[in-house]
Amino acid sequence: MSRTLDFVAQSLRxxxxxxxxxxxxxxxxxxxxxxVALEGTMLFAALGTVAGTTxxxxxxxxLAIGLASGVAVQLTHAAAxxxxxxxxxxxxxxxxxxxxxxxxxxxxxxxxxxxxSPQIPVLGSRTGSLAVVxxxxxxxxxxxxxxxxxxxxxxxxxxxxxxxxxxxxxEAAESVGVSVVTTRIAALALAGAAAGLAGAWLAFDQRQFxxxxxxxxxxxxxxxxxxxxxxxxxxxxxxxLFGTAEAAQIALQDQxxxxxQVVQALPYLLTLVALATLRGRGRPPAALGKx
Length: 291
Hints:
mainly alpha
């Protein structure tokens, strides 16, 4: 029983950054702005969380700085796409490259290391079973709050209605007095906060910043958005599925029955299979990529 609970807890913990980043991707893409930059946003947010925590000694301050870092990256994306008229995919890839090299540079500048930062204190307790630690971890509940806010916010708030309107028919939205640019900036700021929370989760989970620690999670989160048809509840289901696959990968690593390389590739193979088989079930926002 305890093994089953630990496996479930491990699956949930692994899924948390996917959940948070996917919610951010949904806000951005439902507003019509493609968001390949989730990966770089998570990296900068993770480093911001660690830098804020080490400089102030407060994990709460570190979390706030991590979230602000995520928002800053996404507002940069907004400026490039909405004002600079840059292609959103090119802008996102450029931000990812900047994040990959920039975080390494800042890591060396801050901590004289190109690989790892010092250990940081974390929010909540790390004592007890994995299930108890997960249940009592404030980050678990912050991510849950982001999911609930996305599900309800898109459907039941004025901002959610405007986001969906500018993602589907920006000209019609403009004709009734809705500012497309302002709405998309707000959606990207929310995307930055959500993806920033994912990066902060990584920093607190590993208790440090490691070079390249996002490990492709931002891309898997974006794949989750696409597979789910840009809908938050299906995105939750697929994020949990990918978390379970990664937990299974960890559990199978010591088994000899399956090749080590196959085990390591399991989450990515699942992502590719899901994209290939389920991609056609959802319709992207009509104005996605049209700025």
